[in-house]
Amino acid sequence: xxxxxxxxxxxxxxxxxxxxxxxxxxxxxxxxxxxxxxxxxxxxxxxxxxxxxxxxxxxxxxxxxxxx
Length: 68
Hints:
Layout: H1 2-7, H2 15-34, E1 40-41, E2 46-47
Antiparallel strand pairs: 1-2
């Protein structure tokens, strides 16, 4: 990793690949918790089912917040 930072070369495992791997496991866990099938929308990066979307978010403790 540090070598890639120094030389600006692309790492062996880039962020796009890691993101797809993480999303797959997170959606699997959410599907098990919701006991429902999930339809993933790649363009909007969310699930199609409105009722399941809250399971993809986290409530932060004060004073922390996520700014988009």
